[in-house]
Amino acid sequence: MVKRFDWYKGEENEEKKQQPQNPTKLRHNVQAGQVLVILSGRFRGKRVVFLKQLQSGYILVTGPYKVNGVPLLRLPQKHTLTTSKIIDVAGVNTDNVTDAYFKKDKKVKGTKEEQFFQDGKKKKAEVSQEKKDTQKAVDASILAAIKGKTEAKYLRDVFTLHKGQKAHELVF
Amino acid sequence: MAITRYVEPGRVALVNYGKNVHKLGVIVDILDENRVLLDGPTTGVAREVYPLKRLYLTGLKVSILRGARTKTLSKALEKDNISEKWEKTSKAKKHALKMKRTSLNDYDRFVVSNLKRRRAFELRRKAK
């Protein structure tokens, strides 16, 4: 295959980066509302609710945030474990959550020294009100569906292997 | 303590390992010190040679002669009502429980652990 050179970098080329040629195939037994276990990263072990697959191939999940502290998260499918539990997500609308939602804000300009003298402390990343609102809107119907049920406790629980448990022998 | 569960024609055995694992069969003939001919027409175990190490001998026995054919065996099993007798034994119940536990999915396992925690909490509360 001939190497493609971006001689004239235009907007069309930048859009193509977000759409991979072969996006990850969604596992056959995964549907909206399926409970997944996150296997790596900051939220490893947490059980989350699968919402949809994004255009880039990544998976969109949510804790819900009030239940286990996991926000709207974008994950590679490979970092999840599918369980057979499905939660009712009939009222959930994730149309406005796309790959663009997860784009990181531009970093503060200036050298490290300048920043140090400016604040004295490292600034904590703040979540925009817009994101908080989206989180609330998406989680609302899920929280209503699991309110007061064992499912809520289940999502709060963290997955671990216990003594005598063998991962290849467990049924999920 | 004397041995009561002999390896003999008619002895009902539970298969521990292999493709017919967790199924019942009946010892029909004995080959040598280590191997027997096992048959289980009612449980889907084909008439085959099994090493004794793969079997668990139960306390149940069917009245058949050595080398009895499959048809004769299935008649004898029905007559002695082995399947019902087996279900009543504690081994059968424990085995069923073990099978249930291994088949639990992630949510079921959580429900069980949650119930155990609640029970422990209640017991501790009542002990005070």
UniProtKB/TrEMBL annotation, chain A:
A GO BP annotation: cytoplasmic translation
InterPro entries: 60S_ribosomal_eL6 (IPR000915), Rib_uL2_dom2 (IPR014722), Ribosomal_eL6_KOW (IPR041997), Translation_prot_SH3-like_sf (IPR008991)
Highest rank taxon of the organism: Eukaryota
The keyword Ribonucleoprotein is assigned to this record: yes
Ranges of Basic and acidic residues composition bias in the record: 1-18
GO CC terms of this entry: cytosolic large ribosomal subunit
Claim: Ribosomal protein is one of the keywords in the record: yes
Alphabetized UniProt keyword annotations: Ribonucleoprotein, Ribosomal protein
Pfam families from the UniProt entry: Ribosomal_L6e
Molecular function terms, GO-annotated: RNA binding; structural constituent of ribosome
Region called Disordered, residue ranges: 1-25
Family, per entry: Belongs to the eukaryotic ribosomal protein eL6 family.
Protein name: 60S ribosomal protein L6
From TrEMBL, chain B:
Domain of life: Eukaryota
Family of the protein in this entry: Belongs to the eukaryotic ribosomal protein eL14 family.
Keyword Ribonucleoprotein: yes
InterPro entries xref list: Rib_uL2_dom2, Ribosomal_eL14, Ribosomal_eL14_dom, Translation_prot_SH3-like_sf
Stretches of the chain forming a coiled coil according to its record: none
Any GO BP annotation: translation
Name this protein carries in UniProt: Large ribosomal subunit protein eL14 domain-containing protein
Keywords: Ribonucleoprotein, Ribosomal protein
Limits of the Large ribosomal subunit protein eL14 domain: 47-119
Keyword S-adenosyl-L-methionine listed: no
GO cellular component entries: cytosolic large ribosomal subunit
Lineage: Eukaryota, Sar, Alveolata, Ciliophora, Intramacronucleata
A GO term for molecular function: RNA binding
